[in-house]
């Protein structure tokens, strides 16, 4: 819907190809150019009225050149021919100074996604800002529909369409559109013991698959109200159940630790762990970049390499790392098409509901929020702030807050005793609740 | 050349925009009962050089420019931006932004007047201060020092970043202001290994100056030595304790405590909306006697300082807590107007493509009277944290965390052995009431802080003297 269109979408491929040609004429031995363009809007409503209307239209164009195997990069948000030439020149200037690195260069030509698949990622919403506001208002109204909800941070409707394009001097050029629509709501509950805030959201490629706005508001409200009168608990070592929204972050740390750039620097506790047991033998983890309409789906990675479905963990054993062409060469391996990140991670569950996991746990803590940055990928040491619920006899007793959970990720991975079937489809990493046998919970 | 002239030449002249064109765009944004509108023109030039595995293997150069248009009615903001600084795009953005208003009618545009700011830093581009060869030498020197410092050092990563940010603000109330902002950062991190155990250490610094400062201060040597020292300390660290205990925080960067525990909670937007644990608490005791905390955007050459904020308001030193009593909030234009007060020069935005909001600048606690040694000696058993990673806060509940990266146990008044990093968690509105002793060694951080709020990052500073906190939860693993 953005009215700020400046570029002809179809011309982007030509712009990239011209940049590649120009770089070659200026002395680049190899070159790659990537461009992104985000267009869309963000509308938020608070306390029953519109609060902000933002129109987005953001571009970026990045050039990487190689003189021999010396590398230089430059980016701009101005795609007029003169600016692109200046950007190429800047990258070439840098490549005139940086050191030759025998591992650097484009990804191998035979890996290019010349025949990339269409992944059903582009679903424009076609609503006006006024209609989006109406949805935000309905969502927030539902979020505030409880007398314990005393305030609101509002509800937001976002809709962005991104064009991703990439070309390199192997002659590869590719581009695709992807949409991302979301509705979120954050409300504040209060009682004599203070205020609590929580939120809920839905995000999809296809707006038809968004969760109903009233249901988003209701979940935000319920999640907030249940936190009222939270308290700390005595320091203890107990089983800890992470609900899916936070369980995902624990697998996120796993992916940071098996990322090639951490591995070749030996900056990971999972260095040299290929073909080793990292998780219990019933856990398997797969990457599927070609899920139709998947949030993490991509036909090719940031180097033009064709993505493909693969196993990362089988029966608890690490099968593969997360590599770009550079980190792969440093490790003597082949790229896994993960330049720019991972694409749709699926983790198997134990077939139990969250309720059943709580029963199995008996006494312990259910974590619903984690804050802070206390994760050390070099050592695996883990210590984060948390909030959630105290569980006894498999049932929620009261909300807890001002606690930390701590352990070492290597032990935490091996001590996963179950994964729920309450799989959260919100993100790139999709998993259910995870139950970890024992962790130190620090409190009062 | 003053900053207004530099900004005009860099932002308006290339596409032939005049001051009149700027007024025309503002008038367009004001149509339709808009209370207030502003334009934010920006051009940022950045570079980043990085070394690892002993070679400078990559560097990047980036130019980004654009203009953001905001139109405000009451509590409502309409916002649009363009990457092209030219008249058609500017008018289109102005019309898009003002669509927030539903009624017709127009407020008058005030006559333009130049708002001058402070002169806290030089306007020259720091990127031009050294040649490419000199920049690479700086990286290689740090690498060499770190590798020579100890045979256990296995990896060294060094980075050098510089940016030059030219901004021009034009407001419907007539304010016309500009700022030309340099910012540099130099960082060394190392990984050391001993008996199969690996640990990291890192040291960085920077500010609103140019790269010569790093050479003058021998930063390559100093940062490399310090990063190695931290990594080696961590090689001997035992598991950290778990539970509520007395904690002594070192001076400087541990001031991230203040940023998280009270800083965010005192930003004007949360307090106008009454979603902060500090809402309606001005005049109340929120800290021990002797605790005074300020947010000061006027410190020369500091990373968090600005001559004017991103709304054209000169920055100031705002007292947040005085002798333990809550004194004030940090405001931008919108929240100040809605709260019937004045902006404190804390209106900041990540870029022209983002809406401004109240943000911190340099937030620190003033010095007390105690010798740091005396503070350590006063503790029977406790946790002494001298270096931190980042932190985070839940504004509404007031719960905040910050994570130590170098820490020691204190036993019988003496520092005994290093312990692994751990996250500390507390409650913002009461943690400072447990400040038992305040050191006389106020230090500001080295210029490394980046604050994130609502997805927007801005550079900030923190600082404090050594502090003893009588009870906060330490999130280690040992009971």
Give the strand content of chain A: 35-45%
| Tally of DSSP helical segments of chain A | 9
Distance between the termini of chain A: 52 Å
Assembly level: heterodimer
Strand tally of chain A: 17
> Which value, in Å, is the CA radius of gyration of chain B?
24 Å
* Largest sheet properties of chain A: 6 strands, antiparallel
* Unreliable spans of chain B: none
SS-derived structural category of chain A? alpha+beta
**Number of H- or I-type helical stretches of chain B:** 11
Helix content of chain B: 10-25%
- Percent of sequence in beta strands of chain B: 35-45%
How would you describe the shape of chain A? globular
Task: Summarize, please.
By secondary structure, chain A is of the alpha+beta class. Helices cover 22% and strands 36% of the residues of chain A.
Keywords:
heterodimer, A: alpha+beta, 9 helices, 17 strands, globular, disordered N terminus, B: 7-stranded mixed β-sheet, 22% helix
Structure description:
The complex is a heterodimer of chains A (444) and B (479). Chain A is of the alpha+beta class. Chain A has 9 helices and 17 strands. Among the domains of chain A are: 129-164 and 173-225, PmbA/TldD fold, CATH 3.30.2290.10; 230-444, no CATH class. In chain A, α1 (12-25) crosses α2 (81-95) and α3 packs parallel to α4 (213-225). Chain B is α+β, with helices and mostly antiparallel strands and 479 residues long. In chain B, α2 (19-30) packs parallel to α3 (87-98) and α4 packs parallel to α6. In chain B, 62% of the residues are buried. The model of chain B has no long low-confidence stretch (mean pLDDT 96). At the A-B interface, β2, β3, α2, β6 and β13 of A face β2, β3, α3, α4 and β5 of B. β2 of chain A pairs parallel with β3 of chain B, so a sheet runs across the interface.
